[in-house]
C-alpha cells in the first residue's frame, strides 16, 4: 500500500517539476520526491504490511 502511495506522490512531484510550479509554503517537486522516497523506505522496512498469519504458513501445509 505504501508503494502505491509513493508512486502517486512521485507522479505529483514529477508534474510539479515539469510545470515549474511550487505550492505556497515551500513545497516543491523535490519535497514530493523526498516524501516518496520516505514512503518507499517504510514499505521496504515492512511498515504497513499484513501481520503474521496464524495458520503457520507453508510449514503447516507440509505437515498435513
Regions with little confidence, pLDDT below 50 for 5+ residues? none
Radius of gyration: 18 Å
Work out the strand percent.
under 5%
Please give the largest β-sheet. Answer: none
Number of contiguous helices: 3
Average predicted local confidence, pLDDT: 80
How many separate domains make up the residues? 1
| Strand tally | 0
**Proportion of residues in helical segments:** 55-70%
Instruction: State the shape.
Output: rod-shaped
Sequence of secondary-structure elements? HHH
Oligomer category: single chain
* N- to C-terminal distance: 33 Å
Structural class: mainly alpha
Transmembrane segments: 31-54
Keywords: Membrane, Transmembrane, Transmembrane helix
Question: What features would you highlight for this structure?
Answer:
mainly alpha, 64 residues, rod-shaped, 3 helices, transmembrane helix
Q: Can you give me a brief rundown of this structure?
A:
The protein has 64 residues and is mostly helical. The chain contains three helices and no strands.
Structure commentary:
The protein is mostly helical and 64 residues long. It has one domain (2-48). It contains three helices and no strands.
Task: Give the SSE layout.
Blueprint: H1 2-19, H2 29-45, H3 58-63
Helix pairs in contact: 1-2
